[in-house]
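Milestone M4 deliverable, item 7.
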Amino acid sequence: MKCFNILLDTVDKVKEFSGLINKFDGDFDLTSNDYVIDAKSIMGIFSLDLKNPLKLEVNNVSNIEDLEISLKKFM
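Output delivered:
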C-alpha cells in the first residue's frame, strides 16, 4: 500500500483527478476525517470535505511510478 496527500479544492481538479485515476487499474481509496470512499467515484469525491487535503491509499497498482508522476499536480 502506498499513501499520498492530495488537494482537490476545485471542481476542475476533481474532474481531472477522476479522469486520471480511472485510467489506472488497482484499488484507490480517499479518506477525509472518518469517511473513506472509492477514489474512482466522482460522486463519492464530491461527498467529502474538499477544503482540506485528502489521503489517497493505493493498492495493487503495477505501474506505481507512472501514477506518482501523474499525481504530482494534486500534491
